């Protein structure tokens, strides 16, 4: 039972929150509508100020919703527009914190998975794929995710998959070759064997042949064989990104090395790629037997070390054990062996 006065207070709080979120959405929408290459610096600065003044969770949710409604439509979006929107996310990812890019990436990947399974007729899948490709181009996400997506498409290998593979290779193929040539080589051989097995089932043989030719051109580093390939716009925006990030003093590596499976199961297993992320508490490992934790035997340690451990507030057996190992080991190999035990 919730007393009426408490209920009224909660309703007032909800209304106040809704009003605040509405106001925030208007402000972010106004900035995104004016987004273009020349004013990217000022808009990213204003977005940073909004991040400082509001809750990060609200800001992440609002920004992601507005960007997705701007970029994910039933018609193919201009590449330039998608690039500028992703570049803004990339700059905020480097200057505000990695949770900005992580939230956006997770939402995009989950939405892509949902639309891909539902066989949507429009160009939403391609637009979402473009967002993921440019998140990789602007160093928000590692090539691991791109290879996971390509492997998934190669394993099903329908006509829609072939179009998506071609789209992705045209956008990020040469970057993938530079980052992980071995993984690309394996993917190409997998695609070739898959093409040989399902060739008779597909009506459009020319697209399969074109895809294989594109892959071979990538392997041989031959840019001329890929029609419409123009790396200049991405390079120009990368240069702008480097300038803006350099000015902010964020030189650390903030690429998210996260797999497709981890992103899709984030609600079940937690978001290990975001430091300090809140987690709902669903069990990571289904432990039905509820076994007791094994006791840690570190050998005899002096009472002086144990007193130190207590002083440093090592309040469980495991913590005390690890502390004693680190304090009493002769060298790193000895510490490693003891920690393993």
UniProtKB/TrEMBL annotation:
One Pfam family matching this protein: MIF4G
UniProt cross-references to InterPro entries, sorted A to Z: ARM-type_fold, CWC22_splicing_factor, MIF4G-like_typ-3
Alphabetical keyword list: Nucleus
Superkingdom of source: Eukaryota
Leader peptide range in chain numbering: none
Main location: nucleus
Biological processes per GO annotation: ribosomal small subunit biogenesis
Residue ranges of domain MIF4G in the record: 25-222
Quaternary organization: May interact with EIF4A1, EIF4A2 and EIF4A3. Interacts with PPP1CA and PPP1CC.
One Gene Ontology molecular-function label: RNA binding
Family: Belongs to the CWC22 family.
One Gene Ontology cellular component annotation held by this UniProt entry: nucleolus
Protein name per the record: Nucleolar MIF4G domain-containing protein 1
Subcellular location: Nucleus, Nucleolus
Job description of the protein: Plays a role in targeting PPP1CA to the nucleolus.
